[in-house]
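Student: I would love a firmer grasp of how sequence relates to backbone shape in proteins. Thank you; the sequence and its tokens follow:
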Amino acid sequence: MQMPSLETLLADLELITLAAIEGGALARQHLVTGIKREVNKTEGDPYVTAADRAIDRHLHNILTTARPGYGWLSEEFMNEPDQIQREFCFVVDPIDGTRAYCHIGREFAVSVGLLYHGQPLLGAVYRPVEHQLLTGGLGVGVFKDGQAVTRQATPPPPPTKPRLVVGYREEKRGRFEAMAGDYTIEVHGSIAYRYGLVATGYAHAAVSYHELSLWDVAAGHALARAMGCDVTLLNGQPIDYTAADFTIPPGSLCGPTPALPALQAQFQLG
């Protein structure tokens, strides 16, 4: 499969980056005016906010107006499976880490990914409260706040134990207490940002034990692929971006591609 031209890659990366930044500005506005929770009509999920829906609508307008031939998949839209079959498809989580957004007002991200023939190509992950931006993808590399990242040139600062980044749900359940001797464990609200930390070399691995959706991981997965990392299920199977229900089974992992078999064995569900 031939890659898109560098001109196309850079233009699309600029587009999704600007979209993520605009979405972040909207998220901050809603923090100032007050977070209004809504009920997800399909799942009864209390962690859906007016901000989720407003940002989703805004990003849909920006991105599909600029690229009308591209598909669209997002957390807050009534999604159609045929969209992801298009050559290019935006995959968007307007607020990745809605629980963190609701409870602590930080550590969430706007996550905008772009698939090419059903595989992650580009990603933009923006944490608007912290003003932290990770962008990039295959063919262009990864950028942190606009500066190119070289993964191998990012030695971990003390402590020297490798970092394992996890979500609040896993941390609260105490899943990683037994691994504290092997890893420095950090908790971050956005899974896409956690994958970005692995891509930049700040963390060695990111693990999740609960069911995810494609929009949770697409942007971060693109960043990981660009830096010699990958995202798989803990059983070693690849992420299926053609899943009709857009879900990823419980148990997934992001890490350096050569280290994945050992990591899968270490963190396997049991």
Observations:
- The domain at 151-267 is CATH 3.40.190.80 (D-Maltodextrin-Binding Protein; domain 2).
- The CA atoms of residues 54 and 125 lie 18 Å apart.
- The mean pLDDT is 87.
- The helical segments are 6-33, 50-66, 98-103, 168-172, 191-200, 214-226, 260-267.
